[in-house]
Design brief:
heterodimer; A: about 425 residues; mainly beta; Neuraminidase; four-stranded antiparallel β-sheet; 28 strands; globular; B: about 190 residues; mainly alpha; about 55% helix
Chain lengths: ~425, ~190
Protein backbone atom coordinates (compact mmCIF):
# COMPACT_ATOMS: atom_id res chain seq x y z
CA UNK A 1 0.00 0.00 0.00
CA UNK A 2 2.89 2.29 0.46
CA UNK A 3 3.02 2.69 -3.24
CA UNK A 4 -0.61 3.41 -3.50
CA UNK A 5 -0.30 6.94 -2.57
CA UNK A 6 2.92 8.13 -3.83
CA UNK A 7 1.85 9.02 -7.27
CA UNK A 8 -0.96 11.04 -5.96
CA UNK A 9 1.78 13.47 -5.45
CA UNK A 10 -0.01 14.87 -8.36
CA UNK A 11 1.78 18.00 -9.32
CA UNK A 12 5.13 16.32 -9.19
CA UNK A 13 3.96 13.34 -11.12
CA UNK A 14 2.13 15.27 -13.72
CA UNK A 15 4.69 17.88 -14.40
CA UNK A 16 7.28 15.20 -14.84
CA UNK A 17 5.55 13.15 -17.44
CA UNK A 18 5.56 12.87 -21.11
CA UNK A 19 2.82 10.65 -22.38
CA UNK A 20 3.23 6.95 -22.08
CA UNK A 21 3.47 6.74 -25.82
CA UNK A 22 6.38 9.14 -25.98
CA UNK A 23 8.07 7.27 -23.20
CA UNK A 24 7.89 4.08 -25.17
CA UNK A 25 9.13 5.76 -28.28
CA UNK A 26 12.18 7.05 -26.48
CA UNK A 27 13.10 3.75 -24.95
CA UNK A 28 12.47 0.90 -27.35
CA UNK A 29 14.43 -1.51 -25.18
CA UNK A 30 12.52 -0.75 -22.04
CA UNK A 31 9.89 -3.47 -21.67
CA UNK A 32 11.50 -6.13 -19.60
CA UNK A 33 11.42 -9.86 -19.40
CA UNK A 34 9.14 -9.91 -16.40
CA UNK A 35 6.66 -7.48 -17.82
CA UNK A 36 3.66 -9.00 -19.53
CA UNK A 37 3.96 -8.87 -23.29
CA UNK A 38 1.42 -6.13 -23.80
CA UNK A 39 1.77 -3.83 -26.78
CA UNK A 40 2.20 -0.16 -26.05
CA UNK A 41 -1.23 1.38 -26.37
CA UNK A 42 -1.45 4.59 -28.36
CA UNK A 43 -1.17 7.43 -25.90
CA UNK A 44 -4.14 9.72 -25.39
CA UNK A 45 -3.67 13.22 -26.64
CA UNK A 46 -2.40 15.38 -23.81
CA UNK A 47 -5.02 17.87 -22.70
CA UNK A 48 -2.53 20.69 -22.66
CA UNK A 49 0.64 21.67 -24.45
CA UNK A 50 1.68 23.94 -21.61
CA UNK A 51 4.91 22.42 -20.38
CA UNK A 52 4.55 24.15 -17.01
CA UNK A 53 1.08 22.82 -16.42
CA UNK A 54 0.71 19.97 -13.99
CA UNK A 55 -1.65 18.44 -16.53
CA UNK A 56 1.11 18.14 -19.09
CA UNK A 57 1.27 14.56 -20.30
CA UNK A 58 -1.12 13.20 -17.73
CA UNK A 59 -3.38 10.70 -19.42
CA UNK A 60 -6.90 12.06 -19.07
CA UNK A 61 -8.64 8.90 -20.16
CA UNK A 62 -11.48 7.38 -18.22
CA UNK A 63 -9.30 4.31 -17.81
CA UNK A 64 -6.52 6.29 -16.15
CA UNK A 65 -9.03 8.03 -13.90
CA UNK A 66 -10.11 4.65 -12.55
CA UNK A 67 -6.72 4.11 -11.01
CA UNK A 68 -7.41 5.24 -7.49
CA UNK A 69 -5.36 3.91 -4.60
CA UNK A 70 -6.66 0.89 -2.74
CA UNK A 71 -6.80 1.52 0.98
CA UNK A 72 -7.46 -1.56 3.04
CA UNK A 73 -10.10 -2.05 5.72
CA UNK A 74 -9.43 -0.31 9.02
CA UNK A 75 -10.51 -3.25 11.18
CA UNK A 76 -8.87 -6.65 11.05
CA UNK A 77 -10.84 -9.42 9.38
CA UNK A 78 -12.32 -11.93 11.85
CA UNK A 79 -10.60 -15.30 11.84
CA UNK A 80 -13.53 -17.09 10.23
CA UNK A 81 -13.58 -14.66 7.31
CA UNK A 82 -9.89 -14.78 6.41
CA UNK A 83 -9.32 -15.78 2.77
CA UNK A 84 -7.37 -18.90 3.74
CA UNK A 85 -9.13 -21.12 1.20
CA UNK A 86 -8.19 -18.75 -1.61
CA UNK A 87 -4.47 -18.80 -0.94
CA UNK A 88 -2.44 -21.19 -3.06
CA UNK A 89 1.02 -22.61 -2.48
CA UNK A 90 2.96 -25.26 -4.41
CA UNK A 91 2.23 -28.96 -3.86
CA UNK A 92 3.40 -30.22 -0.52
CA UNK A 93 3.08 -26.82 1.13
CA UNK A 94 0.29 -25.82 3.46
CA UNK A 95 -1.05 -22.44 4.61
CA UNK A 96 -2.68 -21.87 7.97
CA UNK A 97 -3.53 -18.82 10.02
CA UNK A 98 -0.80 -18.00 12.51
CA UNK A 99 -2.52 -14.97 14.01
CA UNK A 100 -5.58 -12.85 13.30
CA UNK A 101 -6.68 -9.56 14.78
CA UNK A 102 -3.30 -7.99 14.07
CA UNK A 103 -4.69 -4.78 12.56
CA UNK A 104 -2.73 -3.60 9.51
CA UNK A 105 0.07 -6.17 10.09
CA UNK A 106 3.13 -4.95 8.20
CA UNK A 107 6.83 -5.67 8.75
CA UNK A 108 7.71 -8.61 10.97
CA UNK A 109 10.71 -9.56 13.05
CA UNK A 110 11.36 -12.66 15.12
CA UNK A 111 13.20 -12.47 18.42
CA UNK A 112 15.74 -15.05 19.50
CA UNK A 113 13.18 -16.48 21.89
CA UNK A 114 10.49 -16.74 19.25
CA UNK A 115 8.37 -13.66 19.88
CA UNK A 116 7.14 -12.18 16.63
CA UNK A 117 7.07 -8.39 16.52
CA UNK A 118 4.82 -6.78 13.92
CA UNK A 119 4.62 -3.13 12.90
CA UNK A 120 1.75 -1.26 11.26
CA UNK A 121 1.41 1.65 8.88
CA UNK A 122 -2.09 3.10 8.85
CA UNK A 123 -2.56 2.29 12.51
CA UNK A 124 -0.34 3.46 15.36
CA UNK A 125 0.53 0.10 16.89
CA UNK A 126 3.30 -2.42 17.30
CA UNK A 127 2.31 -5.96 18.23
CA UNK A 128 4.06 -8.84 19.93
CA UNK A 129 2.80 -12.32 19.07
CA UNK A 130 3.84 -15.06 21.43
CA UNK A 131 3.26 -18.73 20.82
CA UNK A 132 2.62 -21.47 23.31
CA UNK A 133 1.58 -25.02 22.41
CA UNK A 134 0.54 -23.88 18.97
CA UNK A 135 -1.68 -21.11 20.32
CA UNK A 136 -0.70 -17.56 19.50
CA UNK A 137 -1.40 -14.54 21.68
CA UNK A 138 -1.41 -11.06 20.18
CA UNK A 139 -0.49 -8.13 22.40
CA UNK A 140 -0.26 -4.45 21.57
CA UNK A 141 3.08 -3.38 23.02
CA UNK A 142 3.13 0.18 21.71
CA UNK A 143 0.54 2.59 20.36
CA UNK A 144 0.33 6.26 19.52
CA UNK A 145 3.23 5.88 17.10
CA UNK A 146 3.29 7.51 13.67
CA UNK A 147 3.44 4.85 10.96
CA UNK A 148 5.53 2.37 12.97
CA UNK A 149 6.18 0.18 9.95
CA UNK A 150 9.71 -0.99 10.76
CA UNK A 151 10.81 -3.47 13.40
CA UNK A 152 14.21 -4.97 14.13
CA UNK A 153 15.56 -7.06 16.99
CA UNK A 154 19.01 -7.38 18.51
CA UNK A 155 20.33 -8.76 21.81
CA UNK A 156 17.00 -8.57 23.58
CA UNK A 157 16.16 -5.10 22.29
CA UNK A 158 13.37 -4.23 19.89
CA UNK A 159 13.95 -1.41 17.42
CA UNK A 160 10.89 0.36 16.06
CA UNK A 161 10.99 2.82 13.17
CA UNK A 162 8.29 5.43 13.02
CA UNK A 163 8.09 7.74 10.02
CA UNK A 164 10.90 9.93 11.33
CA UNK A 165 12.05 8.43 14.62
CA UNK A 166 13.73 5.19 15.59
CA UNK A 167 13.25 3.83 19.10
CA UNK A 168 14.84 1.03 21.10
CA UNK A 169 12.89 -0.98 23.68
CA UNK A 170 15.33 -2.83 25.92
CA UNK A 171 14.61 -6.21 27.48
CA UNK A 172 11.26 -6.14 25.76
CA UNK A 173 10.38 -9.80 26.00
CA UNK A 174 10.48 -9.83 29.76
CA UNK A 175 8.08 -6.89 29.75
CA UNK A 176 5.50 -7.48 27.05
CA UNK A 177 2.66 -6.56 29.40
CA UNK A 178 4.40 -3.44 30.63
CA UNK A 179 6.82 -2.41 27.92
CA UNK A 180 9.70 -0.24 29.02
CA UNK A 181 9.96 3.39 28.04
CA UNK A 182 11.84 3.38 24.75
CA UNK A 183 15.08 5.20 24.07
CA UNK A 184 15.17 7.46 21.05
CA UNK A 185 18.21 6.47 19.05
CA UNK A 186 17.82 8.40 15.80
CA UNK A 187 15.59 11.13 14.45
CA UNK A 188 17.68 12.89 11.86
CA UNK A 189 15.10 11.85 9.29
CA UNK A 190 12.80 13.72 6.92
CA UNK A 191 9.16 14.04 7.93
CA UNK A 192 7.67 13.53 4.48
CA UNK A 193 4.61 11.34 4.47
CA UNK A 194 5.37 10.16 0.96
CA UNK A 195 7.51 7.04 1.25
CA UNK A 196 8.23 8.04 4.84
CA UNK A 197 7.37 4.73 6.54
CA UNK A 198 10.32 2.44 6.93
CA UNK A 199 11.52 -1.11 6.85
CA UNK A 200 14.54 -1.49 9.12
CA UNK A 201 16.95 -4.31 9.78
CA UNK A 202 20.24 -5.01 11.48
CA UNK A 203 22.95 -6.34 9.20
CA UNK A 204 25.67 -8.94 9.71
CA UNK A 205 27.92 -5.96 10.48
CA UNK A 206 25.71 -5.19 13.51
CA UNK A 207 24.65 -1.90 11.96
CA UNK A 208 21.10 -0.63 11.73
CA UNK A 209 20.02 -0.10 8.11
CA UNK A 210 17.47 2.64 7.45
CA UNK A 211 15.99 3.53 4.06
CA UNK A 212 14.75 7.01 3.20
CA UNK A 213 12.39 7.11 0.25
CA UNK A 214 11.96 9.77 -2.38
CA UNK A 215 9.36 12.31 -1.21
CA UNK A 216 7.05 11.76 -4.13
CA UNK A 217 6.45 9.69 -7.21
CA UNK A 218 9.00 11.31 -9.46
CA UNK A 219 10.96 14.29 -8.27
CA UNK A 220 14.57 15.35 -7.97
CA UNK A 221 15.16 14.17 -4.42
CA UNK A 222 17.04 16.32 -1.91
CA UNK A 223 20.41 14.89 -0.89
CA UNK A 224 18.75 13.58 2.27
CA UNK A 225 16.36 11.27 0.40
CA UNK A 226 16.23 8.30 -1.99
CA UNK A 227 18.93 6.39 -0.16
CA UNK A 228 19.74 3.72 2.39
CA UNK A 229 21.79 4.63 5.45
CA UNK A 230 23.40 2.52 8.12
CA UNK A 231 24.46 3.43 11.61
CA UNK A 232 25.66 2.01 14.88
CA UNK A 233 22.91 0.65 17.06
CA UNK A 234 22.97 3.85 19.12
CA UNK A 235 22.29 5.92 16.02
CA UNK A 236 25.86 7.18 15.69
CA UNK A 237 28.36 6.98 12.82
CA UNK A 238 25.78 7.30 10.09
CA UNK A 239 26.93 6.51 6.58
CA UNK A 240 25.40 6.01 3.16
CA UNK A 241 24.98 2.51 1.83
CA UNK A 242 23.15 3.20 -1.42
CA UNK A 243 21.84 6.23 -3.31
CA UNK A 244 19.43 6.67 -6.20
CA UNK A 245 16.98 4.35 -4.45
CA UNK A 246 13.41 5.51 -5.01
CA UNK A 247 11.85 3.59 -2.13
CA UNK A 248 12.99 0.38 -0.50
CA UNK A 249 10.66 -1.33 1.97
CA UNK A 250 12.52 -4.60 2.31
CA UNK A 251 16.05 -5.95 2.47
CA UNK A 252 18.17 -8.80 3.76
CA UNK A 253 21.70 -10.13 3.48
CA UNK A 254 22.84 -13.13 1.51
CA UNK A 255 23.73 -15.90 3.95
CA UNK A 256 26.54 -16.83 1.56
CA UNK A 257 28.17 -13.58 0.41
CA UNK A 258 26.80 -11.25 3.11
CA UNK A 259 25.90 -8.86 0.28
CA UNK A 260 22.89 -6.64 0.91
CA UNK A 261 19.89 -7.25 -1.36
CA UNK A 262 16.97 -4.85 -1.34
CA UNK A 263 13.67 -4.39 -3.10
CA UNK A 264 12.85 -1.05 -4.70
CA UNK A 265 9.55 0.34 -5.90
CA UNK A 266 9.46 1.76 -9.41
CA UNK A 267 7.84 5.04 -10.31
CA UNK A 268 4.21 5.38 -11.38
CA UNK A 269 2.26 7.02 -14.21
CA UNK A 270 4.67 6.23 -17.00
CA UNK A 271 2.69 3.32 -18.34
CA UNK A 272 0.91 0.13 -17.41
CA UNK A 273 4.00 -2.00 -18.03
CA UNK A 274 7.08 -0.01 -17.15
CA UNK A 275 9.08 0.58 -15.15
CA UNK A 276 9.52 -2.59 -13.13
CA UNK A 277 10.14 -2.79 -9.44
CA UNK A 278 13.67 -3.98 -8.91
CA UNK A 279 15.88 -6.14 -6.74
CA UNK A 280 19.28 -4.61 -6.08
CA UNK A 281 22.52 -5.74 -4.54
CA UNK A 282 25.21 -3.93 -2.61
CA UNK A 283 28.41 -5.92 -2.23
CA UNK A 284 29.62 -6.53 1.30
CA UNK A 285 32.97 -5.16 0.09
CA UNK A 286 31.44 -1.98 -1.29
CA UNK A 287 33.58 1.00 -0.32
CA UNK A 288 31.42 3.72 -1.81
CA UNK A 289 27.62 3.69 -1.93
CA UNK A 290 26.43 2.58 -5.37
CA UNK A 291 23.93 4.83 -7.14
CA UNK A 292 20.96 2.91 -8.47
CA UNK A 293 19.72 5.61 -10.79
CA UNK A 294 16.65 7.36 -9.38
CA UNK A 295 15.31 9.68 -10.72
CA UNK A 296 17.36 9.46 -13.93
CA UNK A 297 17.14 5.79 -14.76
CA UNK A 298 14.56 3.14 -13.90
CA UNK A 299 14.90 -0.65 -14.00
CA UNK A 300 18.45 -0.37 -15.28
CA UNK A 301 17.56 0.37 -18.88
CA UNK A 302 14.89 3.05 -19.02
CA UNK A 303 15.84 6.70 -18.78
CA UNK A 304 13.15 8.80 -17.14
CA UNK A 305 10.90 10.68 -19.58
CA UNK A 306 11.85 13.95 -17.88
CA UNK A 307 14.92 13.49 -15.71
CA UNK A 308 16.65 11.03 -18.00
CA UNK A 309 17.54 13.42 -20.81
CA UNK A 310 21.30 13.77 -21.18
CA UNK A 311 21.79 10.79 -18.88
CA UNK A 312 22.43 7.12 -19.52
CA UNK A 313 21.51 4.07 -17.50
CA UNK A 314 25.12 2.97 -17.92
CA UNK A 315 26.05 5.57 -15.29
CA UNK A 316 24.29 3.54 -12.61
CA UNK A 317 24.45 0.18 -10.89
CA UNK A 318 22.22 -2.34 -12.63
CA UNK A 319 19.40 -4.18 -10.89
CA UNK A 320 19.86 -7.83 -10.01
CA UNK A 321 16.30 -8.64 -11.08
CA UNK A 322 13.16 -7.01 -12.42
CA UNK A 323 10.20 -7.83 -10.19
CA UNK A 324 7.27 -6.66 -12.31
CA UNK A 325 5.67 -3.26 -13.00
CA UNK A 326 3.74 -1.54 -10.19
CA UNK A 327 3.75 -4.72 -8.08
CA UNK A 328 4.94 -2.97 -4.89
CA UNK A 329 7.75 -5.28 -3.88
CA UNK A 330 8.07 -4.95 -0.13
CA UNK A 331 9.48 -7.30 2.51
CA UNK A 332 12.02 -9.96 1.59
CA UNK A 333 14.15 -12.59 3.36
CA UNK A 334 16.65 -15.20 2.38
CA UNK A 335 15.47 -18.67 3.31
CA UNK A 336 18.02 -20.69 5.24
CA UNK A 337 15.69 -23.15 6.93
CA UNK A 338 15.59 -26.91 6.53
CA UNK A 339 11.86 -27.54 6.24
CA UNK A 340 11.35 -26.54 2.59
CA UNK A 341 12.78 -28.59 -0.29
CA UNK A 342 16.49 -28.08 -0.96
CA UNK A 343 15.78 -25.97 -4.06
CA UNK A 344 14.56 -23.18 -1.77
CA UNK A 345 17.74 -23.07 0.28
CA UNK A 346 19.21 -19.56 0.19
CA UNK A 347 16.48 -18.36 -2.17
CA UNK A 348 14.77 -15.01 -1.53
CA UNK A 349 11.09 -14.80 -0.67
CA UNK A 350 9.63 -11.44 -1.65
CA UNK A 351 6.20 -10.06 -0.76
CA UNK A 352 4.65 -8.20 -3.67
CA UNK A 353 1.93 -6.11 -2.06
CA UNK A 354 0.12 -5.62 -5.37
CA UNK A 355 -0.42 -2.78 -7.78
CA UNK A 356 -2.81 0.13 -7.93
CA UNK A 357 -1.36 2.15 -10.82
CA UNK A 358 -2.28 -0.48 -13.36
CA UNK A 359 -5.60 -1.35 -14.98
CA UNK A 360 -5.10 -5.08 -14.58
CA UNK A 361 -3.67 -5.44 -11.12
CA UNK A 362 -0.42 -7.32 -10.74
CA UNK A 363 1.39 -8.75 -7.73
CA UNK A 364 -0.44 -9.53 -4.54
CA UNK A 365 1.66 -12.63 -4.00
CA UNK A 366 4.84 -14.05 -2.58
CA UNK A 367 7.45 -14.80 -5.21
CA UNK A 368 10.64 -16.78 -4.78
CA UNK A 369 13.77 -15.44 -6.47
CA UNK A 370 16.62 -17.89 -6.84
CA UNK A 371 20.16 -16.69 -7.34
CA UNK A 372 23.11 -18.28 -9.06
CA UNK A 373 26.19 -19.14 -7.08
CA UNK A 374 27.72 -15.78 -7.92
CA UNK A 375 24.69 -14.00 -6.50
CA UNK A 376 23.20 -12.98 -9.83
CA UNK A 377 19.61 -13.63 -10.83
CA UNK A 378 18.62 -17.15 -11.81
CA UNK A 379 14.81 -17.28 -11.67
CA UNK A 380 11.63 -15.83 -10.23
CA UNK A 381 8.49 -17.86 -9.72
CA UNK A 382 5.22 -17.45 -7.83
CA UNK A 383 5.12 -19.12 -4.44
CA UNK A 384 1.97 -17.98 -2.67
CA UNK A 385 -0.87 -16.59 -4.75
CA UNK A 386 -4.59 -15.90 -4.48
CA UNK A 387 -4.46 -12.57 -2.68
CA UNK A 388 -5.53 -11.04 -5.97
CA UNK A 389 -8.69 -12.39 -7.55
CA UNK A 390 -10.76 -10.91 -10.37
CA UNK A 391 -8.71 -7.73 -10.14
CA UNK A 392 -9.65 -7.29 -6.47
CA UNK A 393 -7.72 -7.97 -3.32
CA UNK A 394 -8.62 -10.73 -0.89
CA UNK A 395 -5.59 -9.65 1.05
CA UNK A 396 -2.23 -8.03 0.51
CA UNK A 397 1.08 -9.53 1.60
CA UNK A 398 3.64 -7.19 3.14
CA UNK A 399 6.49 -9.15 4.66
CA UNK A 400 7.87 -12.63 5.13
CA UNK A 401 9.56 -14.06 8.21
CA UNK A 402 11.25 -17.46 8.26
CA UNK A 403 10.74 -19.29 11.56
CA UNK A 404 13.17 -21.47 13.45
CA UNK A 405 11.34 -24.63 12.38
CA UNK A 406 11.77 -23.64 8.75
CA UNK A 407 8.21 -22.51 8.15
CA UNK A 408 7.56 -19.09 6.66
CA UNK A 409 5.25 -16.43 8.07
CA UNK A 410 3.51 -13.97 5.76
CA UNK A 411 1.89 -10.75 6.98
CA UNK A 412 -1.27 -9.37 5.37
CA UNK A 413 -2.08 -5.75 6.16
CA UNK A 414 -5.44 -5.85 4.34
CA UNK A 415 -6.83 -8.46 6.74
CA UNK A 416 -4.64 -7.79 9.75
CA UNK A 417 -3.40 -11.36 9.78
CA UNK A 418 -0.27 -13.48 9.73
CA UNK A 419 -0.20 -16.80 7.86
CA UNK A 420 2.17 -19.71 8.31
CA UNK A 421 3.39 -21.67 5.31
CA UNK A 422 4.86 -25.07 6.07
CA UNK A 423 6.00 -28.05 4.04
CA UNK A 424 5.49 -31.77 4.56
CA UNK A 425 6.20 -34.42 1.99
CA UNK B 1 -13.76 24.99 19.76
CA UNK B 2 -16.68 27.22 20.66
CA UNK B 3 -19.02 25.18 18.51
CA UNK B 4 -17.59 21.98 19.79
CA UNK B 5 -18.33 23.19 23.28
CA UNK B 6 -21.94 23.88 22.39
CA UNK B 7 -22.32 20.42 20.93
CA UNK B 8 -20.77 18.84 23.96
CA UNK B 9 -23.21 20.67 26.15
CA UNK B 10 -26.04 19.35 24.01
CA UNK B 11 -25.07 15.73 23.93
CA UNK B 12 -23.25 15.32 27.22
CA UNK B 13 -20.01 13.43 27.47
CA UNK B 14 -21.37 10.45 29.31
CA UNK B 15 -23.49 9.31 26.40
CA UNK B 16 -21.05 6.92 24.77
CA UNK B 17 -20.35 4.95 27.91
CA UNK B 18 -23.89 3.65 28.22
CA UNK B 19 -24.93 0.55 26.35
CA UNK B 20 -27.08 1.76 23.51
CA UNK B 21 -28.26 0.51 20.17
CA UNK B 22 -27.20 2.24 17.00
CA UNK B 23 -30.67 3.70 16.70
CA UNK B 24 -30.36 5.10 20.22
CA UNK B 25 -26.95 6.53 19.56
CA UNK B 26 -27.58 8.11 16.18
CA UNK B 27 -29.51 11.14 17.48
CA UNK B 28 -26.44 12.04 19.53
CA UNK B 29 -24.39 12.15 16.33
CA UNK B 30 -27.06 14.10 14.50
CA UNK B 31 -27.34 16.67 17.26
CA UNK B 32 -24.03 18.02 16.04
CA UNK B 33 -23.85 16.78 12.46
CA UNK B 34 -27.34 17.99 11.56
CA UNK B 35 -30.78 16.47 11.83
CA UNK B 36 -30.42 14.72 8.47
CA UNK B 37 -26.66 14.35 8.80
CA UNK B 38 -26.24 17.68 7.04
CA UNK B 39 -24.43 20.10 9.27
CA UNK B 40 -25.43 23.72 9.87
CA UNK B 41 -22.61 24.19 12.30
CA UNK B 42 -19.27 25.71 11.38
CA UNK B 43 -16.40 23.29 11.83
CA UNK B 44 -18.60 20.23 11.86
CA UNK B 45 -18.88 18.19 8.68
CA UNK B 46 -21.96 16.81 6.98
CA UNK B 47 -21.82 13.04 7.15
CA UNK B 48 -24.97 12.06 5.28
CA UNK B 49 -24.20 9.92 2.27
CA UNK B 50 -20.53 9.53 3.07
CA UNK B 51 -19.21 6.12 2.02
CA UNK B 52 -19.66 3.72 4.94
CA UNK B 53 -16.04 2.62 4.65
CA UNK B 54 -14.85 6.19 5.05
CA UNK B 55 -17.05 6.75 8.09
CA UNK B 56 -15.88 3.53 9.71
CA UNK B 57 -12.23 4.39 9.17
CA UNK B 58 -12.70 7.81 10.74
CA UNK B 59 -14.67 6.44 13.67
CA UNK B 60 -11.97 3.87 14.39
CA UNK B 61 -9.29 6.54 14.14
CA UNK B 62 -11.27 8.76 16.53
CA UNK B 63 -11.84 5.90 18.96
CA UNK B 64 -8.16 4.97 18.91
CA UNK B 65 -7.19 8.66 19.11
CA UNK B 66 -5.20 8.54 15.91
CA UNK B 67 -7.34 11.37 14.61
CA UNK B 68 -7.48 14.05 17.23
CA UNK B 69 -10.71 15.82 18.12
CA UNK B 70 -11.62 16.32 21.73
CA UNK B 71 -15.30 15.80 21.06
CA UNK B 72 -15.06 12.91 18.66
CA UNK B 73 -12.39 11.12 20.68
CA UNK B 74 -14.72 11.27 23.66
CA UNK B 75 -17.80 10.26 21.68
CA UNK B 76 -16.15 7.21 20.14
CA UNK B 77 -14.37 6.13 23.29
CA UNK B 78 -15.27 2.64 24.36
CA UNK B 79 -17.51 1.86 21.39
CA UNK B 80 -17.15 -1.61 19.92
CA UNK B 81 -16.23 -2.36 16.33
CA UNK B 82 -19.83 -3.35 15.70
CA UNK B 83 -21.10 -0.10 17.22
CA UNK B 84 -18.88 1.82 14.86
CA UNK B 85 -19.93 -0.29 11.88
CA UNK B 86 -23.57 0.30 12.70
CA UNK B 87 -23.14 4.03 13.03
CA UNK B 88 -21.15 4.26 9.83
CA UNK B 89 -23.73 2.25 7.91
CA UNK B 90 -26.62 4.32 9.25
CA UNK B 91 -25.00 7.62 8.41
CA UNK B 92 -24.02 6.41 4.95
CA UNK B 93 -27.66 5.65 4.17
CA UNK B 94 -28.81 9.23 4.71
CA UNK B 95 -29.35 11.28 1.56
CA UNK B 96 -26.20 13.27 0.75
CA UNK B 97 -26.21 17.07 0.97
CA UNK B 98 -26.98 19.20 -2.05
CA UNK B 99 -25.56 22.63 -2.62
CA UNK B 100 -28.31 25.18 -2.02
CA UNK B 101 -26.56 28.51 -1.99
CA UNK B 102 -26.50 30.99 -4.87
CA UNK B 103 -24.80 29.76 -8.03
CA UNK B 104 -21.18 30.86 -8.09
CA UNK B 105 -19.98 33.38 -10.62
CA UNK B 106 -18.65 31.96 -13.85
CA UNK B 107 -15.11 33.08 -13.07
CA UNK B 108 -15.10 31.29 -9.72
CA UNK B 109 -16.61 28.21 -11.29
CA UNK B 110 -13.95 28.14 -13.96
CA UNK B 111 -11.18 28.66 -11.48
CA UNK B 112 -12.51 25.97 -9.15
CA UNK B 113 -13.09 23.49 -11.95
CA UNK B 114 -9.57 24.11 -13.18
CA UNK B 115 -8.09 23.48 -9.73
CA UNK B 116 -10.07 20.29 -9.21
CA UNK B 117 -8.73 19.13 -12.54
CA UNK B 118 -5.22 20.33 -11.82
CA UNK B 119 -5.01 18.50 -8.52
CA UNK B 120 -6.92 15.53 -9.94
CA UNK B 121 -9.33 15.39 -6.99
CA UNK B 122 -11.67 13.22 -9.03
CA UNK B 123 -9.06 10.56 -9.52
CA UNK B 124 -9.75 9.25 -6.03
CA UNK B 125 -12.86 11.10 -4.87
CA UNK B 126 -14.70 10.05 -8.08
CA UNK B 127 -15.59 12.25 -11.02
CA UNK B 128 -18.47 14.02 -9.24
CA UNK B 129 -16.51 14.08 -5.95
CA UNK B 130 -19.04 11.75 -4.38
CA UNK B 131 -16.33 9.63 -2.80
CA UNK B 132 -15.80 5.89 -2.87
CA UNK B 133 -14.88 3.27 -0.30
CA UNK B 134 -12.48 4.83 2.21
CA UNK B 135 -12.34 8.07 0.26
CA UNK B 136 -14.83 10.72 1.39
CA UNK B 137 -17.56 12.52 -0.46
CA UNK B 138 -16.52 16.13 -0.96
CA UNK B 139 -19.36 17.51 -3.06
CA UNK B 140 -21.52 19.95 -1.07
CA UNK B 141 -19.51 19.44 2.10
CA UNK B 142 -19.26 22.54 4.30
CA UNK B 143 -16.89 25.10 2.81
CA UNK B 144 -15.19 25.90 6.13
CA UNK B 145 -14.66 22.24 6.86
CA UNK B 146 -13.16 21.53 3.43
CA UNK B 147 -10.77 24.45 3.77
CA UNK B 148 -9.73 23.42 7.26
CA UNK B 149 -9.09 19.79 6.32
CA UNK B 150 -7.04 20.69 3.27
CA UNK B 151 -5.01 23.09 5.36
CA UNK B 152 -4.54 20.45 8.05
CA UNK B 153 -3.46 17.85 5.51
CA UNK B 154 -0.95 20.30 4.11
CA UNK B 155 0.52 21.03 7.54
CA UNK B 156 0.21 17.34 8.51
CA UNK B 157 -1.92 18.39 11.49
CA UNK B 158 -4.34 15.79 10.18
CA UNK B 159 -2.47 12.63 9.27
CA UNK B 160 -4.56 10.72 6.78
CA UNK B 161 -5.47 7.09 7.31
CA UNK B 162 -3.30 6.49 4.33
CA UNK B 163 -0.97 9.43 3.64
CA UNK B 164 -2.45 10.11 0.21
CA UNK B 165 -3.99 13.43 1.14
CA UNK B 166 -0.90 14.54 3.03
CA UNK B 167 1.09 13.93 -0.12
CA UNK B 168 -1.33 15.60 -2.47
CA UNK B 169 -1.81 18.60 -0.19
CA UNK B 170 1.89 19.38 -0.29
CA UNK B 171 1.41 20.46 -3.88
CA UNK B 172 -1.69 22.55 -3.24
CA UNK B 173 -0.93 26.26 -3.17
CA UNK B 174 -2.31 27.97 -0.04
CA UNK B 175 -4.13 30.52 -2.18
CA UNK B 176 -5.94 27.71 -4.00
CA UNK B 177 -7.43 26.23 -0.83
CA UNK B 178 -10.28 28.75 -0.34
CA UNK B 179 -11.13 28.54 -4.03
CA UNK B 180 -11.27 24.77 -3.93
CA UNK B 181 -13.35 24.81 -0.76
CA UNK B 182 -15.86 27.27 -2.17
CA UNK B 183 -16.16 25.49 -5.50
CA UNK B 184 -16.55 22.02 -4.02
CA UNK B 185 -18.96 23.14 -1.31
CA UNK B 186 -21.18 24.58 -4.02
CA UNK B 187 -20.82 21.71 -6.44
CA UNK B 188 -24.16 20.68 -7.83
Amino acid sequence: MKRLMRSLNVAVALSALLTAGVAFAQSPAAPAADAPAAPAAPAPKPPTTDRQSTLFGQPQTAEAAKLAPVAGPVLPTPLAKLPLAKLHVPDGFKVEVYASGVGNARSMRLSDKGTLFVGSRVLDKVYAITSENGVQTVKVIASGLHRPNGVAFHNGSLFVAELSKIWRYDDIEANLDHPPKPTLIYDDLPKDEAHGWKFISIGPDNKLYVPIGSPGNITMPPSTHAQIRRMDLDGKNVELVATGVRNSVGFDWSPITKDLYFTNNGRDWVSEDIPNDTLHRVSADSKTPPNFGFPFCHQGNFTDPEFGWGRSCDEFAKPTALLGPHVASLGMRFYTGDMFPASYKNAIFIARHGSWNRTKKLGGDIVVVKLKEDGTFASMEPFMTGFLENNKYNGRPVDVQPMKDGSLLVSDDWNGAVYRVSYAK
Amino acid sequence: MRFAAICLALVGLSAPAMAQTVAERLPTCLSCHGAQGISDTPGIPSLAGQPADYLLVQLVLFRDKQRVSEVMNAMADGLSDDDLRGLADSMAKLAPPKASGPVLEAAVLDQGRGLVEKYRCGSCHAANLSGQEQIPRLAAQREDYLGKQLTDYKSNARAGYDPAMNEVAQEVQPADIPVLAKYIANLR
